[in-house]
C-alpha cells in the first residue's frame, strides 16, 4: 500500500505565495498558485497503485479545499485522478516538522508501507517521478529525497516511520535539504537522492518556469483563472 501526501494551502489572496505576492500582488499570486496546483494535478494523472491525500491548511478549510480540488478533477478531462483514491486531511497544529511527523505517523499506523510527501511549489513533479521515488524504496534505501536549487526539497519518501527526518530541521531555508541529509546519515538512514527540480517561490522562479518546458501550459492556466477570479 502506497500513499502520496500533497501538502497545500487554501488559495486565499495574501495567504499563499507571499514572496511572489511582494512583486505580483496578492490576488495575482493566488491565481498563479491555483494554476500551479491545477498543473500539478495534471502532472499526477496516471498515478497507479497509490492513494492520494491532500493535507491542507488552515484546518477549518476542509469544505473549501475539497470543493476546489474535486472541481478541478471533475471539470478537467486532462486530470486523470480517481476521486475514490483521494481523501482530505487537515495538517494540524505546529511547525512544518510537527505536521509532517503527524502525517507520517498516521500513514504508517493506517498500514501504508511506502509514503511520499510533496508540496505544491514544484510543477515538474509527475506520476512517473513519484513512481520512480517509490521504486527506490527497497532493501537498499530507507528513504528518498528530491532537492530543489534553493536548498529545500520537493519530495521526501520513506518505507518506515522516520520522525528524525522532521525534528529540528530548519524549514524554508537554504539548509533544509542539507540538514535533512545529514540527519539521515547520523541516524543510519540510507537515503537515495533524486535529481533536483525547481520550485516556484519568487517572481524570478515564476519567470523561469514560464520559460521552461511547462511554461506555455502554466501561462494559459493563469490567464484562464484570471478571467474567472
Task: Explain what you see.
- The chain has 229 residues and is α/β, with parallel strands linked by helices.
- 41% of the residues lie in helices and 17% in strands.
- It has 8 helices and 7 strands.
- The protein has a 7-stranded mixed beta sheet with strand order 3-2-1-4-6-5-7, sandwiched between helices.
- A hairpin with a 5-residue loop joins strand 5 and strand 6.
- It is globular, with a radius of gyration of 17 Å.
Which key phrases capture this entry?
229 residues, alpha/beta, 7-stranded mixed sheet, 8 helices, 7 strands, 41% helix
Quickly describe the structure:
By secondary structure, this protein is α/β, with parallel strands linked by helices.
Describe the secondary-structure layout:
Elements: E1 2-9, H1 18-24, H2 26-43, E2 51-57, H3 62-75, E3 86-90, H4 96-109, E4 114-118, H5 127-135, E5 143-147, E6 153-158, H6 176-186, E7 191-193, H7 203-210, H8 215-228
Parallel strand pairs: 1-2, 1-4, 2-3, 5-7
Antiparallel strand pairs: 4-6, 5-6
Report the helical percentage: 40-55%
Low-confidence stretches: none
User: What is the percentage of strand-forming residues?
Assistant: 15-25%
What value does the Rg take, in angstroms? 17 Å
Q: Main sheet, how many strands, which sense, barrel? A: 7 strands, mixed
The dominant shape is globular
**What order do the helices and strands follow?**
EHHEHEHEHEEHEHH
- Strands of the widest sheet, in order across it, are 3-2-1-4-6-5-7
Measured between the Cα atoms of the first and last residue, the distance is 38 Å
- Count every beta strand, where a strand is a DSSP E run of 2 or more residues: 7
Tally of DSSP helical segments = 8
Structural class of the helices, strands and pairings?
alpha/beta
Q: Whole-number average pLDDT?
A: 96
